[in-house]
C-alpha cells in the first residue's frame, strides 16, 4: 500500500469519523469486560413493526424500540463475536484506504481464525453491516463497503468533479460520456457538483425507456438529467438523486411501469424503504413526483396490457393502506387499476410510435404537473 493512498485515507474526514466510531464501539465492549459486565450492544429494532412513517419528515423512520444483543446467550455471544471481528476488519480497511464488497466480506470471514466468527451466509454478513450502520450512525459507504454491482447511470447537462484512486477528474455527463451515460459511483458523496443547466431530473425504471429517451435527445431538448433506476434503485442512485435535488434545487419526477411493484419503486425514491428506514433522511427525496405510467393512461391511450396477477391485486390492496399512497391521486389510480384488472409497461407507449413518449406523453404530463 502506497504512502499516498494512506495519506488520502487519513485526510478523508468521513473515513476518519467512520473509523473513530468503530473503535469507540469496540472500546465499549472492552470497558464492559473490564468492569466485569456481560458484553452487550443496544440496537434499534429493524422489524416492520418498528418502522414508522414520519408525517413531519415525509419518510420512513425507525421507531423507539430497542433490542439488546448480549453475550448471556450462545447466539448473542456469537453475534457479538462476529461484530468484533468485522469491526477489526473495517477499521484496518479504513486505515489502509482500501475498500471491499459485501460479498467479499462474507467470503473473507472464512479465513478468520475463530470459526464461530464466520458468517453463515451473505444475509448474515449484510445484516451485521446494517447493525453497525444503525449503532454507529455511519453509512456503509463510509466504511468503504460496496455492493457487488450497481451500474446505474445518469445522462444530462451536469458538470461534476469525481474523486478517484487516480485523482480528481471533471466529467460533463453529456459531452464526456458515451450513450451509456455516467456511471454513478458507489459513494456519491465523493462527487462535487460544479455546473448544471438542468431543468428537472427524470428517474426512469427500465433500461429500454432510458435508452429511448437518450436516443430521442430528450435530455438535450428539455435540459433533463435522466437517471436510470435499474428497477428497485440502489442506495447510490437514491443518494445522488437526493443530493441533486437538495443541493441544486432541481425538481425530481419518477417514471415507471404501471403496476404495484413499480409504484413502490417510486415510493422508495420519494419516501424511503422499510429495509433502509435508518437512512431515509440520507436517501429519500420526499418532493419527488410520479409522472407515470398511470392506470388512467392505460384507458386513455388504450395501451397494450397484461392482466393483474393475484399477487399484484394483493399488493395494490395493501398500497391502499400504505401511508406513502394516502392521497386522492393514488387512491383513484389504484382503485381504477383494480377495476380494470390490467397493468402496463413503459414501453407500451411505443404502440403509438417510437417518438410518442418524448414528443407527446412526457411533455404533456410534465406540463400538467408544472415541471415544464
Describe the structure.
Helices cover 44% and strands 18% of the residues. The chain has helices spanning 3-11, 13-34, 74-96, 102-108, 122-136, 207-215, 218-222, 235-248, 260-271, 280-283, 295-300, 310-319, 328-340, 356-369; strands spanning 40-44, 51-54, 59-62, 66-70, 100-101, 145-146, 153-155, 158-164, 167-172, 182-183, 191-196, 200-204, 224-228, 252-255, 289-292, 306-307, 342-343. The strands form six sheets. The protein has a six-stranded mixed β-sheet with strand order 10-7-13-12-14-15, with helices on both faces. Strands 9-8-11 form a three-stranded antiparallel β-sheet, with no helix packed on it. The longest helix is centred in the first third of the chain and has 23 residues, at 74-96. It is globular, with a radius of gyration of 23 Å.
Summarize it.
The protein is 44% helix and 18% strand. It is α/β, with parallel strands linked by helices and 372 residues long.
What's the SSE blueprint?
Blueprint (H helix, E strand, L loop, with lengths): L2 H9 L1 H22 L5 E5 L6 E4 L4 E4 L3 E5 L3 H23 L3 E2 H7 L13 H15 L8 E2 L6 E3 L2 E7 L2 E6 L9 E2 L7 E6 L3 E5 L2 H9 L2 H5 L1 E5 L6 H14 L3 E4 L4 H12 L8 H4 L5 E4 L2 H6 L5 E2 L2 H10 L8 H13 L1 E2 L12 H14 L3
Parallel strand pairs: 5-6, 12-13, 12-14, 14-15
Antiparallel strand pairs: 1-4, 2-3, 7-10, 7-13, 8-9, 8-11, 16-17
Helix pairs in contact: 2-3, 4-5, 12-13
Amino acid at each position: 500500500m502506497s504512502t499516498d493512498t494512506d495519506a488520502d485515507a487519513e485526510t478523508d474526514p468521513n473515513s476518519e469519523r467512520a473509523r473513530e466510531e468503530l473503535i469507540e464501539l469496540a472500546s465499549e465492549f472492552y470497558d464492559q469486560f473490564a468492569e466485569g459486565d456481560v458484553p452487550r450492544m443496544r440496537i434499534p429494532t429493524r422489524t416492520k413493526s418498528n418502522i414508522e412513517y414520519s408525517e413531519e419528515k415525509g419518510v420512513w423512520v425507525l421507531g423507539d424500540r430497542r433490542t439488546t444483543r448480549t453475550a448471556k446467550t450462545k447466539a448473542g455471544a456469537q453475534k457479538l463475536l462476529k461484530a468484533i471481528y468485522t469491526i477489526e476488519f473495517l477499521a484496518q480497511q479504513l486505515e489502509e484506504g482500501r475498500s471491499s464488497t459485501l460479498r467479499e466480506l462474507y467470503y473473507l470471514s472464512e479465513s478468520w481464525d475463530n470459526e464461530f466468527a464466520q458468517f453463515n451466509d451473505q444475509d448474515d454478513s449484510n445484516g451485521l453491516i446494517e447493525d453497525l450502520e444503525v449503532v454507529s450512525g455511519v453509512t456503509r459507504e463510509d466504511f468503504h463497503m460496496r455492493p457487488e454491482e450497481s451500474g446505474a447511470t445518469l445522462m444530462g447537462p451536469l458538470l461534476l468533479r469525481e474523486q478517484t484512486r487516480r485523482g480528481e477528474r471533471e466529467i460533463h455527463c453529456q459531452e464526456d460520456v458515451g450513450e451509456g451515460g455516467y456511471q454513478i459511483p458507489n459513494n456519491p458523496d465523493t462527487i462535487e457538483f460544479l455546473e448544471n443547466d438542468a431543468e428537472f431530473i427524470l428517474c426512469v425504471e427500465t433500461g429500454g425507456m432510458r435508452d429511448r429517451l437518450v436516443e430521442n435527445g430528450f435530455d438535450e431538448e428539455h435540459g433533463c438529467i435522466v437517471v436510470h433506476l435499474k428497477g428497485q434503485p440502489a442506495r447510490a442512485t437514491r443518494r445522488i438523486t437526493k443530493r441533486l435535488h437538495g443541493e441544486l434545487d432541481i425538481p425530481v419526477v419518477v417514471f415507471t411501469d404501471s403496476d404495484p411493484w413499480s409504484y413502490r419503486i417510486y415510493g422508495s425514491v420519494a419516501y424511503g424503504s422499510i429495509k433502509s428506514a435508518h437512512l431515509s433522511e440520507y436517501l429519500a427525496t420526499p418532493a419527488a413526483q410520479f409522472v407515470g405510467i398511470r392506470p388512467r393512461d392505460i384507458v386513455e391511450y388504450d395501451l397494450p396490457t397484461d392482466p393483474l396477477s393475484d399477487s399484484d391485486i394483493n399488493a395494490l390492496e395493501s398500497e391502499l393502506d400504505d401511508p406513502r399512497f394516502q392521497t386522492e391521486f393514488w387512491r383513484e389510480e389504484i382503485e381504477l387499476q383494480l377495476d380494470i384488472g390490467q397493468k402496463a409497461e413503459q414501453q407500451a407507449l411505443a404502440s403509438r410510435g417510437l417518438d410518442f413518449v418524448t414528443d407527446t406523453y412526457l411533455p404533456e404530463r410534465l406540463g400538467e404537473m408544472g415541471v415544464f
